[in-house]
């Protein structure tokens, strides 16, 4: 039984991520759900040594902060000590792996901060349209969080050419307004990494999940962060236990991350 009263209100989705879906020709029976890849198969790439190398390369292009400097040293040391046996994943290695196979044309992110995760997607899909939702909490995690201008200059560094749509403010009101005004928009990839309170994360997931295309990926960060231990339960309740998704997670080391692909 769900511990939360709030659940996503899905309706029929008629938009697909064509790169990982198979759709029967017109007048032929669509026997299987269209999704052709399991989350596990994409998760393998996310924990590969190549993904950690790629993650390091993305961070090296961006404006450093205390956290990214720590992560760069962590990646370099993990690769040096453990090589292909490391099997580490985080939001960056997951987004890299997903962007390679999904070839996203549209990406929505709640919780952008200094642009690390949007730049990760853009580094593999430079023409992708990116929809960014953040209230730019001052001094977030003890680091400057200046907003649009920094994120835009970071996106330039990874040669992003797609549309950039910034929606500034509290996601619990901005998302509802945005979706009311854009009733046909659905996304190839969505990341939920904004409000880390239990109820806030539930509300964000409920707002965005119905707008994920068939074959699309939702990414949820920090599922084993020591300060937000309940997030793993939220993820399981709303996504992992819902059979419309195939899901994968790494909740052993680091702060943990999960992703899921929508089957119907
Ligand atoms: C964990 S950081 C995002 C990190 C980013 N995804 C990355 O990988 O580098 C969380 C961000 O969410 C924003 N945030 C927190 N609560 C929010 C809310 N209710 N609405 C919009 N943004 C919020 C903060 O301003 C912060 O920039």
UniProtKB/TrEMBL annotation:
GO terms for biological process: methylation. Keywords: Methyltransferase, Transferase. The keyword Oxidoreductase does not apply. GO terms for molecular function: methyltransferase activity. Gene3D superfamilies: Vaccinia Virus protein VP39 (3.40.50.150). It comes from the Bacteria. Pfam families: Methyltransf_24. This is Class I SAM-dependent methyltransferase. It comes from Rhizobium ruizarguesonis.
């Amino acid at each position: 039984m769900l511990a939360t009263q709030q659940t996503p209100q899905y309706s029929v989705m008629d938009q697909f991520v064509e790169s990982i879906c198979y759709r029967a020709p017109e007048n032929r029976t669509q026997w299987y759900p269209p999704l052709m890849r399991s989350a596990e198969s994409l998760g393998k790439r996310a924990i590969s040594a190549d993904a950690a190398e790629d993650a390091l390369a993305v961070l090296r292009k961006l404006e450093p902060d205390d956290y990214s400097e720590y992560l760069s040293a962590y990646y370099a040391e993990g690769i040096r000590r453990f090589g292909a046996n490391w099997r580490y994943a985080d939001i960056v290695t997951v987004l890299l792996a997903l962007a390679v196979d999904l070839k996203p044309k549209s990406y929505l992110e709640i919780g952008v901060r200094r642009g690390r995760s949007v730049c990760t997607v853009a580094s593999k899909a430079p023409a992708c349209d990116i929809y960014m939702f953040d209230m730019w909490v001052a001094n977030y995690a003890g680091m400057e969080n200046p907003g649009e201008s920094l994120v835009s200059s970071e996106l330039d560094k990874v040669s992003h050419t797609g549309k950039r749509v910034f929606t500034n403010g509290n996601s619990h009101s901005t998302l509802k307004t945005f979706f009311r005004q854009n009733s046909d928009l659905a996304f190839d990839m969505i990341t939920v990494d904004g409000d880390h309170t239990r109820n806030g994360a539930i509300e964000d997931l409920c707002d965005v999940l119905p707008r994920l295309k068939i074959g699309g990926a939702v990414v949820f960060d920090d599922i084993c962060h020591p300060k937000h231990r309940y997030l793993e339960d939220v993820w399981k309740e709303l996504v992992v236990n819902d059979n419309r998704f195939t899901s994968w997670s790494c909740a052993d080391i680091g702060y943990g991350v999960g992703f899921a692909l929508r089957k119907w």
